[in-house]
Amino acid sequence: MSLPEVTVGDVVPGREVAVTRADLVRYAGASGDLNPIHWNDRTATGVGLPGVIAHGMLTMALAAQFVADWAGDPAAVRSFSTRFTRPVVVPDDDGGATIALGATVKAVDDNGAVTLAVTATGPDGKGVLGKALAVLRAR
């Protein structure tokens, strides 16, 4: 597969993903990160968090999956880097927390490799990932 034709400044169509407490439990089991701040309100608030929070690596994985889906091939993603800037609080309800994902083309090199500036915004409208960059192989 090849990447879509893009130029610097192009906006990748965004999407929203929901994260529920059930997702957190599944991710905890798969990742081995069983820290109770990801499933127990009492523990999370006891350490100063506003409530149970999504795993940072889960949030990053959702953003990376968004990029891979846009690229049409997960192998096209050569690197993905970010900083975790704000936790995603996941309420104990059926809806969970919604994360809005998006990206803008930051660079296209002479060989056609694409760098995307990726955004992930939590339910409060604030960014949860900072300096998120994805580099995709040339077309």
From TrEMBL:
It holds the Pfam family MaoC_dehydratas. Transmembrane segments: none annotated. Residues 15-102 form the MaoC-like domain. InterPro entries: Fatty_acid_synthase, HotDog_dom_sf, MaoC-like_dom. It comes from the Bacteria. PANTHER family: (3R)-HYDROXYACYL-ACP DEHYDRATASE SUBUNIT HADB, 3-HYDROXYACYL-THIOESTER DEHYDRATASE HTDX-RELATED. Belongs to the enoyl-CoA hydratase/isomerase family. This is MaoC/PaaZ C-terminal domain-containing protein. It comes from Actinomycetospora atypica. The lineage of its organism: Bacteria, Bacillati, Actinomycetota, Actinomycetes, Pseudonocardiales.
